[in-house]
C-alpha cells in the first residue's frame, strides 16, 4: 500500500476517497478518528491518511487527486437555476442540484 493523500481536514480526504472510488480505485483510510489524540501526538501524526491498495493504479490516482486540488483552487461559480454561489470544488449546485455550467 502507498500513502497517496493526507490533509488536516477529514472532509477533503473523504472527498478524495469518493472520487477515487467512483473511478474504480480502492483505498483505505487510516487515522480516521485520531484527531482526539492531538496534544499527546504531534498534530501531523493525527491527520487522516488515504492509502492506495493497488500500487499499479498509482499514476491514475495521483492524476485524479491533482485534478481535485486544481478544481478546488478555481473560481467560484453562480448557479444558472437558483443563482446560488457555489465553491469551485462543487460540480453541482449544493442548493438545487443543477450541474455547473
TrEMBL record:
Domain RanBP2-type per the UniProt entry, residue ranges: 77-96
Keywords: Metal-binding, Zinc, Zinc-finger
Presence of keyword tRNA processing: no
PROSITE patterns listed in its UniProt record: ZF_RANBP2_1
Keyword Coiled coil attributed: no
A Pfam family per the record: DUF2007
InterPro entries linked: DUF2007, Znf_RanBP2
Entry GO MF terms: zinc ion binding
Name recorded for this polypeptide: RanBP2-type domain-containing protein
Organism whose genome encodes this protein: Idiomarina zobellii
Amino acid at each position: 500500500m502507498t500513502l497517496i493523500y493526507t490533509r488536516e481536514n477529514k472532509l477533503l480526504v473523504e472527498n478524495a476517497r469518493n472520487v477515487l472510488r467512483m473511478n474504480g480505485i480502492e483505498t483505505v483510510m487510516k487515522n480516521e478518528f485520531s484527531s482526539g489524540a492531538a496534544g499527546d501526538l504531534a498534530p501531523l501524526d493525527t491527520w487522516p491518511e488515504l492509502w492506495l491498495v493497488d500500487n499499479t493504479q498509482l499514476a491514475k490516482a495521483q492524476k485524479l487527486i491533482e485534478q481535485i486540488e486544481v478544481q478546488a483552487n478555481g473560481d467560484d461559480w453562480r448557479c444558472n437555476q437558483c443563482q446560488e454561489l457555489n465553491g469551485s470544488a462543487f460540480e453541482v449546485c449544493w442548493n438545487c442540484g443543477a450541474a455547473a455550467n
